[in-house]
Amino acid sequence: MHLLDRSSLVRSTLAVVAAGTLVLGLAACSSTSDSESNNTAPTHPVNATEPAEESTEEPLATIPALTGGVDTQVAVDASFVDALGTLGLTPGVVGTATFTDGTFSFPITGGNVTYYDPEGDVRPYVQGNIDHDDSGLSLTAADGTVVELSDFRIDPGESKLYGTVTANGTVAAQDAYLFTLWGGTLEPLKTEGTNAVLEGTTVHVSPDAAALLNATFDTDAVQDQMLVGVAKITVATQ
User: Fold this and answer.
1) Alpha-carbon radius of gyration of the chain
2) 10 Å Cβ neighbour count for 33?
3) Are strands 103-107 and 70-76 parallel, antiparallel or unpaired?
């Protein structure tokens, strides 16, 4: 990537963050679908197509290390709260996560993002990871069963969130596909000081997570693509 002056670098970084978060779920954004009416998410995001072979295209911008923070927040939807109540589950936090006024917050601890021209040959045109180590959420049943979902990793190219699943202190799965992320209701990029902020991506239970939770809690109430809430991702650009 060519050397840029300070102002150009900030603008370029903001563009990468905006594009990376935007394509957390670009599928079906151009039309109203059953996904919107049923609070479910598409299963194959537009950005997650196969890359072109032997492409020599250079990225428009790159953030090699997301070491400045800040966090990913999820405002929990009332329907998800109701579902937890029906199952007798109590939500909690793991590690450095917080849960305040119905919103989970997971600190960003690292990762990287590379952004290619959406009109070019490279697919997915946003690549990388956004890491949230040493934090997560827990679900505790009335019988004392505790499931923890932690160490989240967002893959913007796949519009998916991965993480570690622990059941009663025993690791059940690592880097498991936990949530689908859909950007159909994403708001325009905002800036807060030197931070880039994108809000509106909806978070949905993945089919893998639904099956695991149903098996663990002996129920069939956790639905594939159940709406969890709305995400707000804040990333430091300096």
Assistant:
1) 18
2) 14
3) antiparallel
Q: Do 152 and 176 form a contact (C-beta atoms < 8 A)?
A: no
The identity of residue 119, as a single letter, is E
Distance, CA of 94 to CA of 133 (rounded, Å)? 10
- The number of helix segments (H) and strand segments (E) in the chain equals 4, 13
In this prediction the pTM is 0.79
> Which pLDDT belongs to residue 127?
86
- Between CA 113 and CA 190 the distance in angstroms is 18
pLDDT per residue over 41-81, tens digit each?
Answer: 544 444 544 554 556 889 887 778 888 789 999 999 999 99
Cβ within 8 Å of residue 112, ≥6 positions away? 62, 63, 64, 65, 66, 128, 129
**144, 73, 226, 189 alpha-carbon torsion, rounded to 10°:** 180
Which range (152-156, 204-208, 234-238) has the least confidence? 234-238
In the three-class reduction of DSSP (H, G, I as helix; E, B as strand; rest coil), residue 102 is classed as coil
Q: Which of 134, 168, 156, 149 minimizes the C-alpha distance to 208?
A: 149
